[in-house]
Amino acid sequence: MVVESLTNGEDNKSAEKSESTAEAASETDEAAAAAIEAEQREREELNNFIADLQAKIKSKAQLRAENLNCEHPGDSFFAKLDSSLKRNTAFVKKLKQFTAAQLEALLKDMSGLNLSKYISEICAALSEAKLKMTDVPAAVTLCSRLHQTYADFDVQFLEAWQKSLALKPGEKISNPSKLRVDLRLFAELVSSGVISGKQGLQLLGSVLINVISQDKEDHSNFSIILSFCRHCGEEYAGLVPRKMQNFSEKFGGVPIPKSDFLAPDRQQNLRGLLKDYFKNLCKHLISEQQELLNMTKSIRRTMESKGEISNDKKEKCELMQANFDKLHSSAQTLSDLLDEPLPELTTETENCNAGTVIENMLEDATMGDLDPWGDDETKSFYTDLPDLRQYLPNFSAPKVDLEQNEEPTEMTEEALDADIDVEMDIDDPPSTASDPPNDKEAEAPAEQVNEESTAAAAAAPLPDKIANALMEAGRLSASQTPHSKQHFDQFLTNLNNCVNKELIDSAAIEFLLNFNTKNNRKKLTKSIFTVQRTRLDLLPFLSRFVAIVNLCNTDVAVDLSEMLRKEFKWHIRKKNQLNIESKIKIVRFIGEMVKFGLCKKFDALSCLKMLLRDFQHHQIEMACAFIEVAGIYLYNCRDSRLLTNVFLDQMMRLKTATALDSRHAAQVESVYYLVKPPDTVKQDAVVRPVIHEYIRHLIFEELCKQNVDRCIKMMRRINWDDPDVSNYAIKCMSKAYLLRFPLIRCLADLVSGLSSYQERAVTMVIDNVFEDIRAGLEIHSPKLAQRRIAMAKYLGELYNYKLVESTNILNTLYSIISLGVSTEDGVYSELDPPDSLFRLKLACMLLDTCGQYFTSSMSRKKLDYFLVFFQHYYWYKKSHPVFSRVENTADLFPILVDHMYRDCVANVRPKLKLYKSLEQAKEAIEKLKEELYPQLKEGMKVQTETDNNLEPIREDSEFDDGLSDDSSSEREPRTRNHDAGGDDDPNTEDANNANELANTTDWTENEFMLEDCEPHVSEKTKEDLEFEQMFEKMAADSYQERIKETVKPNTKDIPVPMMARTSKKSYEQITTASGNQSGGEKEAAKSNANSSAGNSAGNGGSVVPFVLMVRSGKGGKQQFKQFVAPSDSQLAINLKLQEEKTREEKERVKRLTLNITERIEEEDYQESLMQSQRNMSQNHYQRPSKPKFRHQKGAPDADLIFN
């Protein structure tokens, strides 16, 4: 066995060695393959250069031979052509505005025109025309055709160029751009044989010498010399780029073709002249750098001493920096063409004096070790980017000037103000990207690398597996055809689904391998910029995508930053209160771009400065969103920390000085303390026992509406016999203020579920709740406000789950509005200051929670009495001078508190008529006292208790009122009284309460007596008893007699005399009455027939009979006369209205009577149910507890477990 183990160990070691050897071999092969591929690219580039140069030399030699050996046509040829003045002058005018696009048209026109007499005008027009570099080849072709056609063209053309290129010694060139193009065109004409070689070379040499001699100091004409070397250097000086020479030497001395236009010795003369110019340029470059360094040091010293820099100095320094950068880049290009080394420029060394050293030490001590990320995961997300440049096929990234992307050396508010003023003056339309320049000389390579922003990412190598996968994908993509437009559109659509780091990195790799074209990059930039305004979660991942692409192609990041900046400025100038989501998206996107180094910190701080200039409305939310995203990063970077701190302090000052909305103020404070958390003493974490942590986990973390039953089961399993565990569980269940407000009901449900098993614990929890509320009333501290609100809510929920009686709730309510409350003028209460309205909120919270569940008749009556005192307390607070003015009493009282009070009373008693003043509330209290305990005025003469020490009304227990609220299961919540006060008449509710109270048998008189003293009740005498018996007998007899009487309803307003009721009409009277009635109808019909067509015929036939009572003139005897009146007369209308009112009043009385009857029947039914339940059930607090389940040995008994 030992031998086998040794053999296996050796085999494992050999396998490991073979695997390591294979891995090393694969790495070597991959490196060799990469080197071979790079060498092939270099060879291909050299071959393309040689092929292009050979074609150029060949075409130029062929054109020169045609021009030198041309045969001019005779006079017979010109006689056939058009010599009209109009067409020839038009042709000359076109030459003055010559472009490459007009070449074909001009050649066609020239073939039909005789221009012999216009050669001088043509030569002047061509020499004075303002051409572009792209028009030079077409101009050479046109001049060659003119030279081959007209014999005297070259002579006159040379004379025209001598006038155009004439430069006086010491005179500054007026138009350098035109001279740059003219010098190239003239050199091309000389090398093409259009102009005589000897005379042309003399003129060209003199022009170059004059330009160089005049440009030895400031080198302002450097662009002219550089353009000549770039386009004509190979023919006149034999210049070949250094890069191609190195490739030629690398591949075994591959010959580079040379032009035979000039001899090598003549080329050497011009090359020497250009090298001398380059040496002077290098000296000038060094002197410019020294001046720039001196200016920078001067500005730094000024900043250290004064703390600010003048705008003139800043502008001068910026101009010097721009000129130096331009001169340095041009010198690098000329150095490459002339194959001359560029001198090494000195780097800036910071010479600090003693004071500066001390300041730097203090600054380092103050800042300490700054960490802009906070954790390794965040740092990895923003800094560790996959660098794909070495794996992409055909990738060639030239060096990038790192100074172009550097942040300003000094970030100051003055610099930001200057930048903001410049930007705000430019009226940019929204959502526009910067267009690339069209000038070929200004074109930058498409694949540039932002090495500064991603230096850390570029240094991090990819894992070997990823590198291998990329190499394989690169080979496959190189052999396949490009993806179509549909595939790229699908890629853009799927980009919005990349919601993690791995997906977005894969998308970036796919884009760089398969879709990396200029057109696709523009579409990508637009697609990223137009991401949905609600998808804020995508902004960090899209920014990471752009950062990965920026390693290989910088145009996406540049264009996106420019679009975001212009969109931001447009929103700032617009100043509208619309599109808040779009504004938030823009500022958050800018913040993410800053964290990836794609947007300068200076530009980001300038955006924040713009927002703080007009800190209101949407700009508050934009500033808070920006600081939330990038505030921590900017505050923890050394170069932006000071300015970020200044802006944060300025934002807090604006918040204090401006009357902001509470939501905006909370946002400002939140982001401020997010970036600058307050300095707090670090507290050691409390180490609790495991069982305590488990109890806290169940109550404060796991408890919710869905798992209350599970939490009850878990809480039942703890060891309640252990005093430490049970006391801690009671303590946690008593702290409802540690839960979220919506979960307080769940905690009450939990306590209700435990009440059947742990009665002592539940009782202690309830006692703790009462004690906490009482302590809050005795300690007036704003810090306890949220705690007191939560505990009031908790108490109400305990009542809803039938753990607390209504008497306890009412006692608590009375304590809230009476304990420590002083309603006397001039007496200040520390427990309830006049300007404190918190007790109103506390009472409203308790009423809103459980007031609607006072369903029994007695509890509802008691609550009605409390509402009277509650309204008195409300009006006492509202009428206090603290909340009143002379002209308007309710001017300073908070409107929210007023609405809360009214909503609370409306929820409990929807139809209750509220008092409108403090006087009405006092009158209602006095009236209530007289009705409920009238003996107070007679038997309590020594009573000195006032309203400020109001004691709650003594009430029966919930058991005496009936078990309607507590008779069912403990966890079954109380049913809500839907018609709370809905059936009561608001005008007579207070008056009826006393009558209902008198008719209730369970309500005893001693419940309204005070605790300390009861009034003396005198004994009734014998005479009083006999009087009461006789009075009751008389009332009963009167009632019985009244019942026997038949009362007929009175249908008329005026009582009809008895003689009119009893007298019988004779036949003649009946006939006369009918005849009068018919006659009246006939007359009415006749009048209706003669009336206008607008009256309806039916109105005349509708009449109302009346009886008129008159007195005779002789004896004053009453007589009755009958008559009829039309139904549309005023008399009939008034009669109908009166009858309608009478009928409505009867209906109302009937409806009230029925409602009262139904309510009495419902109360009788409830009382019968309570009586039956009282007989069947035991007392709520004395009911026997259920036997606890004890686990038995052996097989479990299912009946005992589930029953």
From TrEMBL:
Q: Where in the cell is it found?
A: Cytoplasm
GO biological process: one example: nuclear-transcribed mRNA catabolic process, nonsense-mediated decay
> Bias category Basic residues: which stretches?
1183-1193
Question: Where would I find the MIF4G domain in this sequence?
Answer: 85-282, 489-678, 693-911
Q: Where is the composition biased (Low complexity)?
A: 21-37, 1086-1096
What InterPro entries does its record include? ARM-type_fold, MIF4G-like_typ-3, Nmd2/UPF2, Upf2/Nmd2_C
| Signal peptide start and end residues | none
Q: Where is the composition biased (Polar residues)?
A: 1168-1182
- Where in this protein does the record put region Disordered? 1-39, 424-457, 940-994, 1052-1101, 1164-1203
Any keyword Transmembrane helix? no
Q: Fetch the Gene3D superfamilies from UniProt.
A: 1.25.40.180, 4.10.80.160
* Cellular-component GO terms for this entry: cytoplasm; exon-exon junction complex
Q: Which UniProt keywords apply?
A: Coiled coil, Cytoplasm
Coiled-coil region(s) at which residues?
A: 911-938
GO function terms (MF aspect):
RNA binding
Q: State if Chaperone is listed as a keyword.
A: no
Where does the record place Basic and acidic residues bias? 10-20, 968-981
Protein known as: Regulator of nonsense transcripts 2
